[in-house]
Amino acid sequence: MGGYSRRSVLQLGGIAAVGTALPASGARASAEHTWPESFALLRRQWRDVTAAPFRSRPDRLGAKAAGYLDTMAPARTSLWPGLAFPSFDDTPERLQTMARAYAMAGTGLTGDASLAQAVATGIDHYRRRVYTAGADPVGNWWNWQIGVPKRLLDAAVLIAPHLTEARSRALRDAVDHFVPERLLADYSGNSTGANRVDLCTVRLLLAILRGDPVKATQAVSALSPVFSYVSEGDGFYRDGSFIQHTSIPYQGGYGMVLLSGVACLFAVLRGSPWEVTSRVVLDSVERSFAPFVHDGFCMDLVNGRGIGRSAYGDHRRGDAIGSAVLLLSESASATEGARWRGMVKGWALRSARTDGRFAELLDDDTVPALPEPEGHRLLPMSARAVHRRRAWCAGLSMASHRIGHYEHGNGENERGWHTGSGMLYWWAEGHGEQYSDSFWQTVDPYRLPGTTVSTRRLPDGAGRGWGDTCPPARWVGGATDGWYATVGQHLYGLESTMEAFKSWFFLDDAVVCMGAGITARDGVPVETVVDNRRTDAHLTLEAGLAHLEGHGGYVLPTGADLRTLREHRSGGSASRGYVTLWLDHGVDPRSADYVYLLMPGATLERTRARAADPLWARVLANTADRQGVHVPSLGLTAVNFWNGGAVGGLTASGPCAVLVREGGDGTATLTVSDPRCDLSELTVTWDRPVAEVLGSHPSLTGSATGRGFTLSFARPADLSGGSATVTVRLG
Fold it and tell me: SUPFAM superfamilies, from UniProt (predicted)?
């Protein structure tokens, strides 16, 4: 180690470029520690961080490890009977579990030399027969570059004193072979987003095992691209979107892995010469992840092909995100950290099921549990929206020219064809398991709630794999003032001729859903699925309405013929009851349309009252040119202009979304967006007397008040699909 100077090592790796470096603490570490002391610190902190998920029940970890130790029987083709090599998942995971039981206090096996020796033997046995330098990396690249080396190195670092130099060197050579430094040289391909964090973690563990400061610096420096916003491809976007595999919103899968990995690295590197942080990552907690966690589970609309892997997977992902947020809170400001701990405690308290990892937090009376936030979050760059009120929550999943209809790959999610066709998820109080309890294993994939689809039969895995199923639609997104929203999707069916214009107007106790221009030439019926609830609840049907007891109500102001079906569906070992409500647009419709109100949590009486009040929400337009609604009681007018034109006192020079809210204090807000992200200029006129502009937006280049109000925007495409809000005083 004596041949390295700290200055040369840090300069070599360009560590100051990684996010936001902390040179003060890094300098203190440099002054206070030798290289061996720095690596000893990393090993201790790695041990502490990896033990965190098991602190509430270390005895369980110990019992599992003891079972593995008792049954371990090294043979030519396996380490455990029944787990024939390569056993990429199970064998390395068992060795990792045993190593953690050795390193963690309270497991009953803490510091057990025989356990550590067994792990060392197992690592070398697996390395010689499977993970050996020069072997042909057949199958999924991830196993060879991330899954296997990350677990083996984790185990090796935890039991390092019991790993001989020869075995350690052989493992390091194998990892170097399959995970060479050049994988971090270019931010592309499989070395982006969450994969980049995992690859950097592998290279850092390799450096820790070697005690090599140069390789540690290179590993940490290679995180730098993850800490920057992107405008295309994989990574974090300024609107809160997180994309992986080029076109898939992935906070619940790869994003969860990235957040967990970065939180771990921040904690492990704290106080060392490599300490780093990132404002982009810290901001992502509330900007990118929290919007998609509801009552402790992570919504499936940001989990790509992983949605159907297992029942209650959304709750496990929510727990993992919560754990990452707790760990990351130690790297945040005191105010942020306190808020995040309260947020996670609220998730845990409201969760329908959790794995018990938050027991210590729940017992901490100094941390107040925060309630679910209210408001609307629109993430246009990933074609997603989330709407929250005190007693209900909704999430919307769309597809666009940049976001795929769905992702399939590795044999997973091969019938998720229509999840991007305007699927509207919603939860009222007590419905946290609606899409968790074997929903994806049993639901009719042609009748996902909220979607408009051609019933043309599709093969499993229709469309190209790994999310390459983007339709040509550019108008996908909308406008929101943070409380209400107008959202729209120009929909092209997956591998069909179906085309439609769909709009959603998110309000206080309802979502007004509209469709127009529904056209197809597939020779089969086209349907709009009003809902498909996993329930055996009583269904009430009356003129102009439907109501599911304990769930909510549906109002059909045009008196459309609502079709219904009650059935039990099976998938795997599960069988679940469903109530399906849909509108049949007929075979090969030509410009069909629909309007209905979804009222989550509404009683039958409240649903009847809304159905009896046709003027509560007045439809201003529902065509392939414009869709809009006016709600007098809210002072709200909202229009999706698929093309320029005039409706409801609003005129637009081009395609856009406009949301107007009149307050009771003589003021109003106008929120405008360019969902297509391609306008060079836009003019919006409101036929309403306006006295003065009280608050503006940088993209607003001009306004004219008087008997009418005109707004002029230059390059509204620079909003990246976001919204510009202008506040005025009415005349």
Answer: Chondroitin AC/alginate lyase, Galactose mutarotase-like, Hyaluronate lyase-like, C-terminal domain
